User: What shape does this take?
Amino acid sequence: MMHFAVSSKAENFIRALPKTETHLHIEGALPYSLLQQLDPERYANVPDSWRKDFRFDSFQHFESELLGYAAAWFTAPDRYHEAAKLIFETLHKEQNVKYVACSMASGVIEFSGMDGHAVARAIKSAAPKGLKVDLYLGIHHNGYNDKTKNFIEESLTWEELSGYDLHGVEELPLEPWTANLWNRARDFGKYTKAHAGEFCGPDFIERVIEELGVSRIQHGVRSVESEVLLKRLSTQPFVLDVCPISNVKLRVADRYNKEEALRLLKSDVCCTISTDDPISFGNTLYDEYAFLLSEYGFSVADLARFARNGFMTSTLNDAEKAVHIGEIDNLLETYLG
Assistant: This one.
């Protein structure tokens, strides 16, 4: 389990801070308690990967573990509803989250043969009052195939679906269907984003920006390797949804040093803070903020900025954004006063 040393005053600030969760995989956020109910003996102990010092050997190691958990639980739409209900209620009540952008994996739909639209409805219907949820369909680089293309095409008309996210191993080719679907999705009023700059460098970030037309990048931390890209990201309306603990446990952070991480997150690039896959990392949003304060030396004002960015770049209406940003500013003023 993880613990980050922060003062009681800072802890209270983080817990009271209105937050957004803008980079969350539903399958990767499966509450471990549900697996323990399903099979108390098999899942008696929490994963070793929840330890603060744990590091995955590779992305494949991480993905294999996560998909094993997902396959055990996500066998029907009502299982998605049950998991999502607990995920959303915990975020809303315990983490003070007001907005969530999450994804469901097309690969799980493909593997299980479930009705994808029913899954989307099940997830969206689980959102509690006071929490807005935007749902994305996450598709791997090679995830558009004879088995999936019908439901992926149909998903363009799903009212419950807010948009599309590119998932999976970044080193795989970016196939032609991707740009085509992403362009058509925007014609249908959907939002689009992509995972990039986690295991591949700045060149791949540039590719998804140019070829897919996205302005929101999941991770994007390896942009620090290119001053040209950093300038572009900071002077144009791009957003990086960063997951610090994920980057450490997946060894992404091994590719750059702490000073570079500080340079990115303290720059004019718009960054938000999220958890990615809590079932694999044992993290909460509180942990992410406490990690930045304790391990990387960020200030409470920096944490407030990240939270503010989450609201400013959310799909909440202007009045709702103003309320939560005002709460953040008042909380910070009280803390500093």
Summary: The chain has one domain: 8-336. The two ends are 33 Å apart (CA to CA). The first helix runs from residue 8 to 16.
